[in-house]
Design goal:
The complex is a heterodimer of chains A (654) and B (293). With 654 residues, chain A is α/β, with parallel strands linked by helices. Helix content of chain A is 31%, strand content 20%. In chain A, strand 20, helix 20 (519-530) and strand 21 form a beta-alpha-beta unit. Classes of the chains: A alpha/beta (654), B alpha/beta (293).
């Protein structure tokens, strides 16, 4: 076997988990009416089917004062048991174990949904939610402990195999432990012994409720990563004391908090496995099984972590959202078939943070496992001859899905390589992992039986001559030719030209006009700054990188841009660009004050001012083939998630 | 003095090569097959060499025995090429899963049938250490067993042996025949000639099973074993020491310092100036760094 450590069993208390892969807790927004839903059953079930040994559910709220997110399960209501039973039965049929995570978010929430004050150790507002909480009275602490116990009983009756208590990045327990949020002068604050009192009370209450033979663990924040907060040395001591209490069976770990959320769910720019040393540090001090989570998206890396004794269990979260069947594929040695997560954070955290249902750029089936999960793809009733033009993500997905269903598929692309705009996007600074999207699908297109014709600029006549039953246009989009007055002048380039090194005379002093707010602009600015150029960015938004917040890219991107000397001018609607080559100027007005201004001279201008559809082929084929569809940017220029979504959908439907 | 009645039985066992790192399997007890190299137990080959020396000197008849599956035929072919007269491989699927007592029952039965005057084998195995099977078989056959032997002298109806004892001491012991002698790894096995190797492959290996031994299956193998496996644990690999980075560093830099194990990469320096200044500057750096003088 390729991964002997990864596929060896592990005992967590009284339960044996068949392998070392744990699907880690994360918000899904899939609950309905604060009760477990069918969508959740299929969502977690798909990961069990895919071979994960352990599934830990998303956090469930143990107390009415904790309703930070609208779509949490209120586990303190007995009505949850019925839904739990359906979920646990479904998961158990795939020989996986399922634990429930219980949490009270304390001050890391607000009362806008619950209409109740939030409770915390001290009246210290959270950096993200900014609502001053109510300082908990000793009776409140007792009440939360009672609610933890009550919830634990519901979990056990619901058929779960164990419980994890969230003491990590977003939790009341961590707020008690951290000197940054606990300023109490009573028996719950001050010394470490006192700060541990409330968390230990929660653990003891749950342990008493579920009995000795029920696995119970804690998810600790391994390091708050902020001066004055908990650091590894303190957490090692806390973990040792929790172990010494004899009440818990395992130690799951997370990292950072809301001060630095970009580390809780590290994006593409964060190194793979960035939390491994912290897990190793905790494991150094305790004998309980230690979990490690954080950009471990690869069984090879996971095996290495286990073999070198850095952790006992590998927590995979985004890796299994992206490819639920990663464990099974790793077990069978089919590494080629694994769809690796790229930590773009657009579909998962990017959507969850905006209160949308969980998604994944690369996996359209997330949250729709019942309709689109494994085993739902049926062979086509009528085998058709399908021509797909455009080998970007949308075209590749359409080809893959249609090919798998038995259609006779030919995929055309004018480039020498598959990938479309991804080939350019991956050239942005620190964005090379974006190219993994192509790597993931290329082999799947080949395996689906679809024929790939590269380097072919296919015309309407050529297409019609092949007499296709179905034509799918996935020709993408191109930068707008005239997004602003004067854009046809000299020394003006678009982002694609810059990244593809087609911009001849950029010079040293470049101005980038950012109407994108996302990586298209930011990663290009950094790409230029990396070449030692002086870059100035002008945007109509409040700030540069306005779209990068939800994906947790904002902080580090802005940090890097500033470190590299990039300067920003926000609030400006650019109306005209002009000037000679080498002395370019930008004219615009402040959108709030309406005062006009001019910037320059710059050696050159780079425009990230929008795309337009490339639909000429679609228009000329209209009415000439039986079935004509278009997907992705050739419908309307959007992001890669929609190209994949539409490619996938059309591949299923034709 | 040639003694044509001197029958020597040599027990050959295989072991795993201890040099490449072996992995313990985590489901059940045992060593992972992955990357495993099996070799003849070096001490057993020394014992065979001792037997062959006696054959050369006294004309003894050397029978080589292996207990195990078909791959052991390679060991027996090697023994034949070195000069063993008879090769027996005793195996039956009923013997699978046996402990030392069950295997000793088989060996003692073989000793009874073959009735050798001397039973030779190695004292230790490099992968497992001691193997109690020959000693237990000797006890079952009610014959003496000499372990850790470095030299053997054949007397009249008895043997004298020099054996290692603790603290580097030696002990001379005597035992009547028949007896079991377990040698330390010492005598260097001879090299077979190419002709002998070719001939040995053609030499048949006698295959014995439980029926030929007349042993009931419930006395051997897993059903005859009295040592059940209750639990098997793999030791936790040593945890890796982690340096706690400076808590005053910004979060992302702490991550980087954790991942690098506390090692900070050296930053580059940017110099500008004319060609001569640049050359002088580079030279200055090289001098400062101790690269040039």
């Amino acid at each position: 076997m390729m991964f002997p450590n990864l596929f060896s069993p592990l005992k967590l208390g009284t339960v044996e988990v068949k392998n070392r892969i744990s699907f880690q807790p994360h918000l899904t927004n899939l609950a309905v009416g604060n009760l477990p839903s069918e969508k959740q059953m299929y969502y977690w079930g798909e990961r069990a089917k895919g071979g994960a040994g352990l599934i830990i559910t998303e956090e469930m709220s143990v107390h009415p004062t904790d309703m930070s997110y609208e779509k949490l399960i209120d586990v303190y209501h007995p009505e949850v048991i019925e839904g739990f039973k359906k979920i646990t039965d479904y998961v158990h049929q795939y020989d996986a174990k399922i634990f429930a995570q219980l949490n009270h978010n304390g001050q890391q929430g607000d009362g806008s949904i619950s209409r109740l004050p939030v409770w915390a150790p001290s009246p210290m507002p959270d950096v993200l939610f900014r609502e001053t909480p109510k300082e908990m009275e000793p009776e409140d602490i007792e009440e939360v402990a009672r609610y933890f116990a009550k919830s634990a009983i519901h979990v056990r009756e619901g058929g779960f195999d164990g419980i994890e208590l969230q003491f990590g990045h977003s939790s009341l327990a961590r707020q008690f432990l951290s000197p940054l949020t606990n300023f109490r002068s009573d028996e719950y604050g001050g010394s470490l012994e006192n700060r541990l009192r409330a968390p230990l009370k929660f653990i003891a209450a749950v342990r008493k409720a579920v009995g000795k033979d029920f696995p119970l663990g804690v998810r600790m924040c391994a390091d708050e990563m902020i001066p004055g907060g908990l650091d590894l040395a303190q957490v090692q001591e806390i973990c040792a004391q929790l172990e010494a209490s004899g009440l818990i069976d395992f130690m799951d770990l997370s990292i950072a908090t809301f001060y630095n959320l970009y580390l809780v769910e590290g994006s593409m720019h964060t190194p793979l496995g960035y939390t491994i040393p912290l897990a190793a540090g905790v494991r150094e001090k305790i004998k309980l099984p230690v979990f490690c989570t954080g950009r471990i998206n690869d069984p090879v890396m996971a095996e290495k972590v286990l073999a070198s004794g850095q952790a006992d269990m590998i927590g995979m979260c985004r890796a299994l959202i992206c490819d639920p069947h990663l464990p099974k594929k790793a077990f069978e040695g089919r590494l080629d078939d694994i769809r690796y997560c790229i930590a773009c954070n657009q579909g998962c955290i990017g959507r969850i943070g905006m209160n949308k249902l969980l998604g994944c750029v690369q996996n359209p089936a997330v949250g729709r496992e019942k309709e689109w999960g494994e085993g739902t793809l049926k062979p086509a009733a009528v085998k058709k001859k399908v021509a797909i033009v455009g080998g970007g993500p949308g075209g590749m997905w359409a080809a893959k899905m249609a090919g798998r269903r038995g259609h006779d598929v030919t995929l055309y692309d004018r480039n020498e390589n598959l990938g479309g705009q991804v080939l350019t996007a991956m050239k942005g600074a620190g964005r090379d992992e974006f190219g993994v999207i192509i790597r993931n699908e290329k082999s799947q297109v080949d395996k689906s039986g679809a024929k790939v014709k590269l380097g072919v600029e296919v015309t309407t006549e050529q297409l019609l001559a092949t007499k296709p039953d179905v034509v799918i246009i996935a020709t993408g989009s191109v930068p707008k030719e005239h997004p602003v007055g004067g854009a046809d002048g000299p020394s003006i380039y678009n982002v694609l030209q810059v990244l593809n090194n087609e911009a001849a005379d950029l010079g040293q002093n470049v101005c980038l006009i950012d109407y994108d707010g996302h990586q298209r602009a930011a990663a290009t600015a950094e790409f230029l700054a990396n070449q030692g150029k002086k870059v100035h960015m002008i945007t109509s938004s409040l700030f540069i990188g306005a779209e990068l917040g939800p994906t947790q890219d904002l902080y580090l991107t802005r940090q890097r841009l500033l470190q590299k000397g990039v300067t920003f001018t926000p609030d400006i609607a650019v109306i005209e660009v002009g000037g000679e080559a080498g002395a370019k100027t930008v004219k615009g007005f402040n959108v709030y004050s309406n005062i006009w201004d001019e910037w320059g001279p710059f050696d050159s201008l780079v425009l990230a001012m929008g795309q337009r559809v490339e639909d000429s082929l679609y228009m000329s084929l209209k009415g000439k083939v039986d079935e004509l569809y278009r997907v992705g940017d050739s419908v309307a220029p959007r992001k890669v998630d929609m190209a994949i979504w539409e490619g996938h959908k059309i591949g299923r439907e034709i | 003095m040639p003694d044509n009645n001197l029958n020597i039985l040599v027990l050959l066992r295989e072991c795993s090569d201890p040099r490449p790192p072996a992995k313990v399997i985590t489901r059940g007890a045992g060593i992972s097959e992955r990357g495993l190299r099996r070799i003849a137990n070096p001490a057993d080959l020394s014992a065979l060499e001792e037997a062959l020396v006696l054959k050369d000197r006294l004309g003894a008849v050397v029978t080589v025995l292996a207990m195990g599956p078909q791959r052991l035929d390679d060991l027996l072919h090697l023994a034949a090429s070195l000069g063993a007269d008879r090769c027996i491989r005793c195996w039956d699927h009923g013997m699978d899963g046996g402990d030392a007592t069950a295997d000793a029952r088989v060996l003692s039965r073989l000793i009874k049938i073959l009735a050798p005057a001397l039973i030779f084998s190695g004292s230790r195995l490099p992968d497992r250490g001691d193997d109690p099977v020959p000693a237990l078989a000797a006890a079952l056959s009610r014959i003496p067993c000499l372990a850790a032997v470095t030299e053997l002298t054949l007397g009249n109806n008895n043997v004298k042996a020099l054996r290692k004892v603790d603290r580097g001491g030696y002990q001379e012991v005597a035992a009547p025949l028949p007896c079991v002698v377990l040698f330390e790894e010492g005598a260097v096995p001879r090299y077979p000639s190419v002709e002998a190797v070719t001939a040995a492959v053609a030499t048949g290996v006698e295959k014995w099973n439980l029926a030929s031994l007349g042993l009931p299956f419930w006395e051997v193998g897993a059903s005859g074993a009295i040592l059940p496996l209750a639990e098997f644990g793999v030791p936790r690999p040593d945890p890796i020491r982690v340096v706690t980075p400076d808590a005053q560093l910004p979060a992302f830099e702490r991550i980087i310092s954790l991942l690098s194990g506390g090692i900070k990469s050296r930053e580059g320096r940017l110099h500008s100036g004319s060609l001569d200044e640049t050359v002088a500057g580079i030279w200055q750096i090289l001098v400062e760094e101790g690269v040039a003088t």
